[in-house]
């Protein structure tokens, strides 16, 4: 992935750059899969009743249900890892990160479903939104906390959002009597 350790923060930049690049590639692939016109002989009606599509998939048998439901779960699941990776933060509240990632995944899924309204052969399905968002949340829960904990234990140099780094910098920069007030644009006397 091109991760190098340096004292000037390049490690975090490499993680973010890789995350943004992979996120863009994944979204392009998802857009191509979900927003291209399909040549089909007939189209099912749009589904706006939650869980009705999942029940219909389960009625088709276990193999077909697993294929359809699993496909919907896996379609946007990489976003659960790629969105936090593109953010580049190692020290962040796990619940806040999960909430942000789930919300972003739900909004992207909603945008896809709304985009499908004008595409021939594609059908809007509320269950796709639910399953896509669930896939994002599951991927986030299974991967991100573990990876962040591992990166924190490694003590990467150049990571500037460390809580102890901010405190040490603040204590080192302050004089015992406090900092000297300065006015910008005013030079020193001769």
TrEMBL record:
**Keyword terms, alphabetized:** Membrane, Transmembrane, Transmembrane helix
VanZ-like domain spans which residues?
25-144
Keyword Membrane belongs to the record: yes
This protein's superkingdom? Bacteria
- The UniProt regions of compositional bias labelled Low complexity, in chain numbering, are 176-190
Which stretches of sequence are listed as region Disordered?
A: 158-190
- Membrane-crossing residue ranges in chain numbering: 12-33, 69-86, 98-117, 129-147
Q: Could you tell me where the Basic and acidic residues compositional bias lies?
A: 161-175
Among the Pfam families in the record, one is VanZ
Q: Which InterPro entries match?
A: Teicoplanin_resist-assoc (IPR053150), VanZ-like (IPR006976)
Record-given protein name: VanZ-like domain-containing protein
């Amino acid at each position: 992935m091109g991760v190098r350790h340096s004292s000037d923060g390049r490690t975090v930049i490499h993680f973010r750059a890789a995350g943004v690049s992979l996120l863009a590639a994944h979204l392009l692939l998802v857009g191509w899969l979900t927003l291209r016109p399909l040549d089909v002989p007939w189209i099912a009606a749009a589904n706006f009743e939650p869980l009705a599509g999942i029940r219909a998939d389960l009625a088709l048998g276990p193999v077909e249900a697993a294929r359809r439901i699993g496909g919907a779960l896996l379609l946007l699941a990489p976003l659960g890892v790629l969105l936090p990776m593109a953010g580049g933060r190692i020290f962040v509240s796990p619940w806040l990160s999960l909430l942000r990632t789930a919300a972003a995944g739900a909004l992207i899924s909603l945008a896809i479903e709304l985009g499908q309204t004008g595409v021939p052969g594609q059908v809007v399905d509320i269950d796709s939104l639910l399953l896509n968002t669930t896939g994002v949340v599951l991927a986030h829960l299974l991967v991100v906390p573990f990876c962040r904990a591992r990166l924190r234990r490694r003590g990467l140099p150049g990571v500037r959002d460390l809580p102890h780094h901010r405190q040490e910098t603040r204590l080192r920069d302050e004089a015992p009597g406090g900092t000297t007030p300065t006015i910008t644009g005013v030079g020193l006397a001769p």
